[in-house]
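Predict the 3D structure for this chain.
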Amino acid sequence: MEWKQASTVEGGISIPLRWIYLMYYEAFNLLFRIENALRIFVYIVLKNELRDKWAGAQVTADGEQGTIASLAKRRMGQAKTFGYLGHTIDCPIMHLNSGELTRLIVSEAYWKLFKPYFFGSKEIIKSKLDEIGSIRNSLAHFRPIRADDVDVIKQNSKHVLLGIEPFLNQVLLQSDVIPTNTQDEWYKNLKTLGTDLCAFTFQQSTDEKWVSISMVYACPIIKKDTQWSEYPSYTVLTIKSSGVLTQCPEIAKDVCYLSERITYPKMLEDQDAEFKKTVSLVLSRSMLGSQHKNLKASLEKLLLTIAKETELIQQDNLARGELIHSAAVNASLRKKEEPCQWQWYYQKLHTPVEENDPPEYWGNLNFYGWEDFVAATDKYPWMPESVCVAEPPFF
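Done. Predicted structure below.
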């Protein structure tokens, strides 16, 4: 039994002739992306409507009625039998398959929530999703498919996701600055937030329905080693981003998701350096309108905790807080570049997605300003690693 492998060659990849036809790989790629796009879509809609009760939504699975949470709990328990295989993912929505997602979407209880994002009747949408599901089941059970089936997946997905993809683009990218003269009560209430350590910025989606509240933490340096001038090292304070949700559960109720971003470090005079970490809370404008007072109280509590823990570790470098901890950052001088440039190694400032994190924590996701999320994204929420090579938006 000889299992031949694919290999990288100049200009591409060489596939052994004995491997199954490329249409099977294409079908798998399509189905993987469609099913995960539907999961994200269903989660966002339910989270925005039901807040922390979203996983209590009813769904039919294996002929029985249950909640998303109860179904996921059973399947996660089964998966732990072989826990050494694959990744353990606790987010309940990740344990629903396309058939269950379809039944939830078109159910009498929830269709009214999802209907605005579909350009077709419930019966038509269900039929198109069921066709995709039929092909998925053939592939999942290793039955042969036809080349025409791949075309059916593409055509049906375009029809079904016609309104969903623009919706996802709005939720995943808030690129417009909110004007400082905005008269909304939530903005007047929240714009006063900020400390010497943490500054706040506010951005919105182009349709103005989704808002990103970004807290920029000026990561203090508590130790600098420049003994080797071309290879300085730093001990820097950073925020455990996922901890924001566990330490401030009221924030987790309101937000759709929380993500983080590290600004590329900047070398200053005398080899001082500047480090910044941004924690972004994304939620709907309607949610902000009703919950901004509670949200402000939670954010003020968060700022107080950050200030106290930062001061503690600055005074005692071996201490560690619930939210703030130290991390090592290194730099090296690249003399071959003109002018000379600093290469930074700052991965430890990030907070990776872990299996026990709240569903609202999406980690370091950089969604570009393109309109091709469903077919092209390299990263998904709740997944601890990328699924493909990132393709620049203007490639």
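The longest helix spans residues 285-315.
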